[in-house]
């Protein structure tokens, strides 16, 4: 998809959410699209490279608003500030490396939400489940090989 095509889709989505199409909003969408799982600070730095007059605070406000109207998805992972992505609406999940914090997309297990059916504990009041947010945690290949190549500790005698 060309940048022009993407901007046309974003503009249409902004319109239908009752937002004006501004350079600032398009710049935030472009930044997050190029840096999937960007933190707000990553996104602000990228936006400010092209639009130096926009404040970091304005980028934060735009990120929150674009998340509210469903053009961005906000991802919460442990030990990290929230991250943003333009891949929305497909119920995908995330895997995070507990070594270096890198995050990767994992496709939804069954293709639609909720992809897990709860086994209710005895005594729990049941709910109608809409979303199952799954976070896979492990070690990426880089962190795993770094852990393996560490010299074995000398036996204590
Ligand atoms: Zn890692
Ligand atoms: Zn993602």
Automatic annotation (TrEMBL):
Coiled coil: none annotated. Pfam families: FUR. The keyword Ribosomal protein does not apply. Keywords: Cytoplasm, DNA-binding, Iron, Metal-binding, Repressor, Transcription, Transcription regulation, Zinc. GO terms for cellular component: cytoplasm. One of its GO terms (biological process) is regulation of secondary metabolite biosynthetic process. Its cofactor is Zn(2+). It is found in: Cytoplasm. GO terms for molecular function: DNA-binding transcription factor activity; transcription cis-regulatory region binding; zinc ion binding. InterPro entries: FUR (IPR002481), Fur_C (IPR043135), WH-like_DNA-bd_sf (IPR036388), WH_DNA-bd_sf (IPR036390). Zn(2+) binds at residues 97, 100, 140, 143. Binds 1 zinc ion per subunit. The keyword Kinase does not apply. Belongs to the Fur family. This is Transcriptional repressor. It comes from Arthrobacter bussei.
